[in-house]
Amino acid sequence: MPLPQNASEARLQNTVVSLSLGLKLLNTLHELNIPFAQLMSSTVLSLVNVVQNVKRNREECIQLLEHIQRFIYAISEIYLQSETGDFSPMVLVSIGEFTQTLQKTHTFIEAQQDGNKLRSFFRQTEMSSLLKDCQTGLEQALANLNIHVRHQTWTNVNEFNAILENTHTQLLQLASTTSEYGSSIDKSSSIYRGGSDSFISSRSFSLLPATPKIFYGRDSEVDTIMTILTDPSPRIPILGGAGMGKTALARTVLNHPDTCLMFKERVFVSAESATTSNELVALIALNVGLEPGRDVTQAVLKYFKQSTASVLLVLDNLETPWEPTQSRAAIEDVLALLADIPHLALIVTLRGAERPGKVRWSRPFLSPLPPLSPEAARNVFMDICDEAEESSPAELKQLLDLTDCMPLAIDLIAHIADYEGVADTLERWETQKTGLLSMGNDRRSNLDLSIALSFSSARMTPGSKELLSLLSILPDGLAEVELIQANLPIPDILRCKSILLATSLAYQENGQRLRCLTPVREYIHQLHPPSQRLAHPLRNHFHSLLELYRKHDGELLQPVVHQITPNLGNLQEVLHQGLAANENSDFAEDIYCILSLNVFYRVSREICTPLMNEIGSMPHDSADHRLAASILVERLQSYSQDPSFIPQDLISEAETHFEHFTDIELKARLYLAAGIHFLRHRSNLAQARDYLEKTLSLSKECGIASINCSALLGLARINMQSGNVDKAQACAREAQQLAQLSGNFYDGARARYIDAGCLMQMGDYQSSVLQLTMARELLSLCGMARGHVDQEITIYQAEVHFLKSEYVEAKQIYAEMLKDSSADQNPHAFACALLNLAGVEVLVGEPTEGVRRRLNEAKRIFTDHKYLSGATYCDATLAHLHLRDHETAQAKRIFDECLRLQWGVENQTVGYCLERLADVMQWGGAQCFDFTWPVVYLAFAFNVKEKLALYKACMSLGDVFLSIDDKESARTLFEVALGGFHYMDVHHSRAQCLLRLGNIAERTGERVRAREYWNAACALFERSFQHEQAAEIRKKLDSGSSDEVDIEIERLRPPVS
């Protein structure tokens, strides 16, 4: 039985109060960088506002909201109970599923308001089904979390609100002791936005390593480097053998007081996880806060060149990418480019005694670092080992002699002696050195002896050895949260970590990630490589995060991105080891993880992981058709970005595998990738339509709404390009309905954006702007503001201004887009901004040279990326520039070539060319004008159902009739066009019609009416930034002369044969 209205209202208000408290919890969780928190917060905030106006199904809505508030409390409690301040991947999956249900709930509750348009979208059966989905989804989400959270009971809403307030207080206390990125983010990712200026440069995003606390025996090297740093453009290589203290010397110089005064910006980059020049540059970009991309070399160079202050860049462990012969030349090219920047000082550390080529290194050359002096070695040992004071000088000297005064060996043995005593350490050396010395008696052997002694220390447990073995293949190390959540088969893993730190076999970078020095990693990997039993749990942990990223569109999960990114080197190495293992029962799982990793690379960096090439060169189990098909689908999705890739053979091969198993979703993704490829890169609309229709059929069969939406939106784009605007809009609106039923705000925003494009083509600019606004609101609700779709919306908004001839507003948006993009990181967006900006500049009379320069650069980028339509549109805009400058022969030749290339392929370019070819006024009069073009333009506009083009074609035909002195027919056509332009609010075209109607009125003796037309035209020419035309009309109005009118009419008369 429903509650009385007053009781229902009270219950609703209590729920709203609790939800408002829940919003505080979500906002604090967002500050702690919890995935989905921002998305949940924005959706709940909207719900709090919407639910106040609910008129139908009120009790059901209240019940849904009560489930939501309990879920928010549950995840807050789980976070407070966690040992690491992070959610496990299992909990994150539950939160992700809840978030999808939350969006469905928003759709349902929003539809219960009076007068809400959503209700007209759905049938009653669909609304009932949506309610059931929401109830089931929320109940399941709570059930999933109940196994993780401690149970609390409350008897009334006030008690529950008090519990929420207390939970919020605890979260705030936790947040106050956590860095800006929160504990869920690895602090060693080299990105940081706060702290003391002594550790963080004024512009860089790099957290600088601290000065070594124990540092002796390098005074002369420090003095030499500090002297060189005062020279113009210093370039300093620090060379030496493994473990000789190169990094310690670089860190000392980096934090020297004089260095801090000389360089306003200091950047430290550890290059040991880089294997190519692109990866090295990407690390530099990451450390200075640049966005990732396919190749950020130019962006990095631009960053340093535009720096107004002196910069010191330290590249540590550069030997990793430089030593392999296949990458050496490219690394040296990067160094040479950096060395060409005058105000950039460069320090590199490399193992060995050879300096990289292509750089004029500063003189005097710093010699490779020698071992420490006996005195310095003794000081290092004494600072580490408390037992040294009680040892005899002879024993101490004997032990130091065994290290050969190598800094790393001293450090390791000092820690052993500090625990076991100097005498016992010497005894162990005597029992173990014979076998080890058989490898040689050089410095490298001594270093191995030191590591081996540490490894066999009495403190080393089997678990700590296993952990060290795993670290030997992890160049990025591991954060504590990863040690705990990865479910590694190592008992008491945090104690094992402490043992490795105590023996100096591992260290914590900036107090966070547990790492091994490169020499230690290399030696342990040879001595005690990890088994797949150790590697697989870590792989599974990261695979679950990668799958979470893939499932939720990537951009929703920046905190997850920050967990994955610092481990990319680890993932590459773990998966490489798995592929190389002779006996690997989880071989297929390794490949599936590589495919998920490639999705991350493809979406976040627009490149592929090198492991995809390894998969291609390895034999697979021919019976595992699902695996083979999955590889082919991911290859097609990856190479959709490469227009030179021929996909037909790959699609056929995948279809052959599908004959042996059934996976409708995977097959739908294959055809979706194929359709997108042919639509974007081949301009083959027929083949794209065929694949997308197959996708649509399969997606309906398997019930995957996101694939269904993507197929519908692809078909909408095809119909728009084919001139079938009504069909395009029908597809877009079906996608809108599907997205709302499935609670997918992101797909809903995409659908509204496509619908806006259809409305633009129909000439309904007001409704188009409304759809774009609603699309942007949906993006904000799902946390995707400022993403790719948001950029597309901005382009459409600029295009509306452009079509309405609001050129100043369009130019401002295009200029801002050009400023926010770059040719290196997002070349397509950059080239489009250049092209669009040039198109506006042609119309507003900007100087020819600057416009031509923009067009040339845009065409070069489009050509390099094999985007023919973009390059041809550049040519069409260049033809318009020629026409504006009265170079009619060049303009005609280029327009004809553009039409030849794009007719039946790209309607936008065709319409652009025909509009200008049909405008007799731009061709200097009838003497050089082909009067068939207005008719062709009218037929084209009618065929593609583009209203603006239809009315512009009518105006061009009016000029044709005016040229043969048929003033009445011309007047009728101009009035028809004027009505259309008035409805669409197109200022420039309205002004042109009014000018022509005024001219006709003047010639027929209607002087008063002519002045009314001209006055209205003058204001509209000013609004559309056509100042010259406005000035001509004012001159005409002031003089009262009709000479200019007669000249303009005369230009339209056809030549006498």
Automatic annotation (TrEMBL):
It comes from the Eukaryota. InterPro entries: Adaptor_Cbl_N_dom_sf (IPR036537), MLKL-like_MCAfunc (IPR059179), P-loop_NTPase (IPR027417), TPR-like_helical_dom_sf (IPR011990), TPR_rpt (IPR019734). GO terms for biological process: cell surface receptor signaling pathway. This is ATPase-AAA-core domain-containing protein. It comes from Favolaschia claudopus.
